[in-house]
Fold this sequence. Notes:
Layout: H1 2-24, H2 27-47, H3 49-70, H4 72-90, H5 100-121, H6 130-144, H7 154-177, H8 181-207, H9 212-219, H10 222-228, E1 229-230, E2 233-234, H11 243-261, H12 267-284, H13 290-306, H14 310-328, H15 334-341, H16 349-367, H17 378-384, H18 398-431, H19 435-454, H20 466-501
Antiparallel strand pairs: 1-2
Amino acid sequence: xxxxxxxxxxxxxxxxxxxxxxxxxxxxxxxxxxxxxxxxxxxxxxxxxxxxxxxxxxxxxxxxxxxxxxxxxxxxxxxxxxxxxxxxxxxxxxxxxxxxxxxxxxxxxxxxxxxxxxxxxxxxxxxxxxxxxxxxxxxxxxxxxxxxxxxxxxxxxxxxxxxxxxxxxxxxxxxxxxxxxxxxxxxxxxxxxxxxxxxxxxxxxxxxxxxxxxxxxxxxxxxxxxxxxxxxxxxxxxxxxxxxxxxxxxxxxxxxxxxxxxxxxxxxxxxxxxxxxxxxxxxxxxxxxxxxxxxxxxxxxxxxxxxxxxxxxxxxxxxxxxxxxxxxxxxxxxxxxxxxxxxxxxxxxxxxxxxxxxxxxxxxxxxxxxxxxxxxxxxxxxxxxxxxxxxxxxxxxxxxxxxxxxxxxxxxxxxxxxxxxxxxxxxxxxxxxxxxxxxxxxxxxxxxxxxxxxxxxxxxxxxxxxxxxxxxxxxxxxxxxxxxxxxxxxxxxxxxxxxxxxxx
Length: 504
């Protein structure tokens, strides 16, 4: 037996050697490799780092581009990962590098892959629901804003709709390509993993200090330092662009973990998810974002209503008592003190300033039913119409921004979209039979509800990855109902077949 094994090993080695000899002894292969080496050397010699980058893009980028179009689930994975890291990567790249166009390119490729796939299947039944109808209306309204007579700049509309409009189309891509429970489970694992990385990054920033490139980016803008350095403490943001986006994603990640613990999973997994949720909420305090502190109790109240039973009721009472204790307990900890001020907004100077700004802009909103134009406030407003009144207006609230840019008509549409999504999600939760899909639907309802609450004091769904996560959560709600309907139909057909085959 030993001799046989040795002979087999020798045969395998000989086969491998023979394969290499056959391939590289071919003159055409050798000529091709030699020409390729000479070509790459010339490109790098002539163009330097740009040439090297071009070679890397051609070697690795083209297969990835093909994979995004041809394999949409791979493309969705790339989109989610990129949306989490896009701002972090931009911190150590020169400002001249258009890193933001990377996500635009991925969305365009996913849309292209969607239409290629749809051309062969020609199945639009996935989108026959109230949510899809409202998103189409909302998208159309955004596109029609180009003709807004009150808009100061068409370029501001172009730059804004480029991110806002095409991100909305991701909803249809997600709904179309989420075709199995396992893929939803995979997306949740990826989502939680990326949130864990973000949480670890914030933990490092708080307890070990900023990394050199993080510190360089942070202190390169005095205005940025002024906004983040409050009461002798630098607010943390992890891998995200700002503390608000970081804190909201931590709360939403915690809600996802909490909801999943209520599913039919192993006790070991429940413990891991519970500890992960606690870690998210702990590092969320480093952000110093008061608005995020309210999201958890408000969302847990909805969770208690959807799953009303003795165990949930007791858990809610215990959580409420713990929250009350944290609100009233005397403390010198700056993070906890800032947490306590979130529940007494009238004593918060920044909240009073926001309320005054909203009062000041109210006459403009009432007199402009279509608003001042998409992109009229914020960075694009300051860039393309710096002398306008709206360019100097700090919107703060996501709802206020919609009202200012798109008028009270747009605000009504936007609020209707939120209402229809939550109403449909709650209805689907009670209609879905499959326990796992019911649990996933409930988790996404909590996420959307948290975005809805968080969009009042801050702009909750304008930054990456929150805008991607928002439409992904809506799509998962729709997909859960569709998958459950298919399962129930198959089960019914199977039962009917069994009745026919059984002897009478």
